[in-house]
């Protein structure tokens, strides 16, 4: 007997389930409602209705980054699909797997000027790894499989599939592929000859350094790196998105995070190193011309993919393939490493890296809250397994430099596109993929400017029962732009904000609002907000008077 046809919508939803998807973020519309209608009946996929498609894409990005399984967002045709653009761009730039499903007009109308018609794939193709249309019903299963495998293959990113309205309502004989078809193929190690060569380079180096980038942030890669460090005490520098690779018991090997401005202890370490092993490094986080301005540092590139070879990034060796297997090979093959962490130079760097902890601002009793006071107190009050998320702005420079994270993908930020507004959506995504959902507090931070990009999602957080404490560092300005404009022009322009009572704003959504107007209130209110079960919003009057120090004391190019 011939196999019965299944609805395309059911094939797509079953494909999502087989791919490991258990949560979908989106906003409905007529061109995609067949998928929503089918999702409504699925017992194990949770559908989260968002307040803006951009935020749905950002929530999906958080799921992809934290879990490694592509996060899924869904939107209708025209403006719905267009609104996904920034979220998908952020995911692709920052290596986070996301699959977007977008509706489109029926095929017979696709070449006509009609209601909500748009060549969505022409818009979304530049910001995704793959953008494809399901032309006929029998392509549905294969196309969904293809976009998941594409999004999951390194370098990871977003993939989008367009589903014409009549295709979604149609039927097909070709069923969803089984779960075993969805994982991307595994990679092996680099060649023995290259690995042996690098092992000898590590043994002979006077000051070898591990420089960990965004693709070194997975649990598997971090585990391999920690095994290497447990055998050989090699100094480590992280980019912002590699945060959490170094555990607390290896803190003596950690020389901080680098990015934006070449003025950190990690920058000084890189400048002195005679061998830098970049592991999962991506220049979107920190361009090589910034940390290697003379183009003369000795580099070994360890990654899934070839490097962007250029004047400032010229590796002597590229170890391509499985980062885990290549690091494990070096751990076994290297016989000895120079104990450079005990050198006077490294001891001086360690002192300089930690000296901020004795600054008087950490003990401020009155006045506006100083960023370091806030960070040191938050560090005391959250556990190492708490997910902490920083939106973009001055807040993220302070937090990513000075907040210690000891577990992978527990301290998150957008460091490729620096997309304003990711803080709250990512917190929602992080909360909802917990097991059970919303069981642990998630902490997120933003400036008042970044928060207003996605503040409407407080409604989503409240209705979903998320357990989130979101702190707003409020100075009534786009401060990250302001202080850089002042550095360039001696004045600022277009940065003034204000006019929002964030406590009342939170309460209007059913959230709990708090305010910290003075340093004397910081510890008490922070404790209350972190203890609150549900969506809590904290308006923190922040002191940015010393913000210029973030970009001062740049290391000269001739430093060696």
Automatic annotation (TrEMBL):
Ordered alphabetically, the record's keywords are:
Thiamine pyrophosphate
Q: Which GO terms describe its molecular function?
A: acetolactate synthase activity; flavin adenine dinucleotide binding; magnesium ion binding; thiamine pyrophosphate binding
Query: In what residue span(s) does the Thiamine pyrophosphate enzyme N-terminal TPP-binding domain sit?
Result: 8-118
Cellular component terms (Gene Ontology): acetolactate synthase complex
Gene Ontology biological-process entries? butanediol metabolic process; isoleucine biosynthetic process; L-valine biosynthetic process
Q: What is this protein called?
A: Acetolactate synthase
Every Thiamine pyrophosphate enzyme TPP-binding domain range: 391-540
Q: What domain of life does the UniProt record list for this protein's source?
A: Eukaryota
CDD domains, alphabetized: TPP_PYR_POX_like
Thiamine pyrophosphate enzyme central domain: residues covered:
196-325
Keyword Protease recorded: no
- Annotated signal peptide: none
Q: Which PANTHER family match?
A: ACETOLACTATE SYNTHASE, THIAMINE PYROPHOSPHATE ENZYMES
Among InterPro entries, the record links this protein to:
Acetolactate_synth_catblc (IPR012782), DHS-like_NAD/FAD-binding_dom (IPR029035), THDP-binding (IPR029061), Thiamin_PyroP_enz_cen_dom (IPR012000), Thiamin_PyroP_enz_TPP-bd_dom (IPR012001), TPP_enz (IPR045229), TPP_enzyme_TPP-bd (IPR011766)
Per the UniProt record, one Pfam family is TPP_enzyme_C
Q: Which family does it belong to?
A: Belongs to the TPP enzyme family.
Q: Is Transmembrane tagged as a keyword?
A: no
């Amino acid at each position: 007997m011939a196999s019965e046809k299944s609805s395309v919508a059911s094939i797509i939803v079953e494909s999502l389930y087989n791919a490991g998807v258990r949560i979908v973020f989106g906003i409905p519309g007529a061109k995609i409602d067949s998928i929503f209608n089918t999702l409504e009946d699925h017992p194990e996929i949770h559908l989260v209705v968002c307040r803006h498609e951009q935020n749905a894409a950002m929530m999906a990005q958080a799921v992809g980054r934290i879990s490694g399984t592509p996060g899924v967002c869904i939107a209708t045709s025209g403006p719905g699909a267009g609104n996904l653009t920034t979220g998908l761009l952020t995911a692709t730039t920052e290596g986070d797997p996301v699959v977007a499903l977008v509706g489109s007009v029926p095929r017979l109308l696709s070449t006509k000027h009609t209601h909500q018609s748009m060549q969505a794939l022409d818009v979304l193709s530049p910001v995704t790894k793959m953008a494809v249309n399901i032309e006929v019903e029998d392509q549905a299963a294969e196309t969904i499989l293809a976009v998941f495998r594409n999004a999951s293959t390194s370098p990871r990113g977003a993939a989008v599939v367009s589903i014409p309205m009549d295709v979604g309502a149609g039927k097909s004989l070709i069923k969803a592929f089984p779960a075993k078809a969805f994982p991307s193929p595994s990679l092996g190690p680099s060649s023995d000859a290259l690995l042996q060569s690098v092992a000898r380079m590590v043994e002979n180096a006077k000051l070898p350094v591990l420089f960990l980038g965004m693709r070194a942030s997975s649990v598997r890669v971090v585990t391999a790196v920690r095994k290497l460090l447990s055998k050989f005490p090699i100094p480590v520098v992280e980019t912002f998105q590699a945060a959490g690779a170094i555990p607390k018991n290896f803190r003596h090997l950690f020389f901080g995070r680098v990015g934006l401005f070449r003025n950190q202890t990690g920058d000084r370490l890189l400048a002195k190193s005679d061998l830098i092993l970049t592991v999962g490094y991506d220049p979107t986080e920190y361009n090589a011309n910034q940390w290697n301005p003379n183009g003369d540092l000795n580099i070994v590139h360890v990654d899934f993919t070839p490097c962007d070879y250029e004047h400032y990034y010229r590796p002597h060796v590229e170890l391509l393939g499985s980062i885990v297997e290549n690091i494990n090979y070096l751990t076994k093959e290297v016989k000895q490493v120079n104990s450079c962490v005990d050198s006077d130079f490294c001891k001086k760097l360690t002192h300089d890296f930690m000296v901020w902890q004795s600054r008087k601002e950490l003990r401020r009793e009155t006045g506006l809250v100083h960023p370091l006071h806030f960070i040191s107190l938050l560090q005391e009050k959250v556990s190492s397994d708490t997910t902490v998320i920083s939106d973009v702005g001055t807040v993220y420079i302070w937090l990513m430099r000075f907040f210690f994270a000891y577990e992978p993908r527990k301290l998150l930020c957008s460091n490729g596109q620096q997309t304003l507004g990711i803080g709250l959506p990512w917190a929602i995504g992080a909360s909802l993929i917990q097991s059970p959902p919303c069981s642990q507090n998630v902490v997120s931070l933003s400036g008042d400017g970044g928060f207003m990009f996605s503040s409407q999602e407080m409604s989503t957080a409240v209705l979903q029962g998320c357990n989130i404490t979101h702190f707003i560092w409020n100075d009534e300005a786009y401060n990250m732009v302001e202080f850089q404009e002042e550095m360039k022009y001696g004045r600022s322009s277009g940065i003034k904000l204000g006019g929002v009572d964030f406590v009342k704003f939170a309460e209007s959504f059913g959230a709990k609002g708090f305010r910290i107007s003075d340093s004397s209130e910081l510890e008490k209110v922070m404790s209350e907000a972190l203890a609150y079960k549900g969506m809590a919003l904290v308006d923190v009057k922040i002191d940015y008077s010393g913000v210029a120090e973030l970009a001062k004391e740049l290391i000269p190019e001739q430093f060696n």
